[in-house]
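Supplementary notes for students who missed Thursday's class. We covered one full example, reproduced here. Read the sequence, then the structure, then the short commentary at the end.
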Amino acid sequence: MSPQTFLFLTQIFCCFLAVGLMIYIFLPSRDLDTGVDKTRVNYLYERKEVVYENLRDLNFEFKAGKFTQADYDAMRVGMEAEAARILAEIEMLEAAGA
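Structure (token representation):
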């Protein structure tokens, strides 16, 4: 096999490999339903955890001096109101389901 033929075959192989990789990477998956079905209650429990974590972060950042008292109080009241709405909806949905 001559060096030119070997080079040509190597280039063809690399092109096929590159095209194959591009198809593998960018072709959308046919298995789109891989996630877990969430109920509204499960979503609300996750949202509640996020709000509680945000409250903890807000408290930490306030103690670190990143917020004024007025800003801290306003944000805390808003987050606590959101947490109360979430808890009320969770309670309502669990009472309706029971």
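Commentary. The two ends are 78 Å apart (CA to CA). The chain has a mean pLDDT of 91. If anything here is unclear, bring it to office hours.
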